[in-house]
Amino acid sequence: MDSAQDWPKILNKDAEPLDPEIQQMQQVLISESPDWLVSTKDVQFSSLIGEGVSAKVYKGIYRHLGQDNEIAIKKLDLTAGNSKAQKNLHNFKQEMDILIQLNSPYIVSLYGVVAEPRICLILEYCSGGALYNELKKDTKIGWENFFQWGSEIIQGLNTLHNSDPQIVHRDLKTLNLLIDADNHIKIADFGLSRIIKTEQRLSTLSKLRGTYCYTAPEIYFGNKYTYKSDIYSLSIILWEIVTKVVKGTYVPPYSVITLFGLKSFNELIIDLTDFCRNLIKFHLISRLLYLSLKRR
Question: Where is the Protein kinase domain positioned along the sequence (predicted)?
Answer without folding.
Answer: 43-296
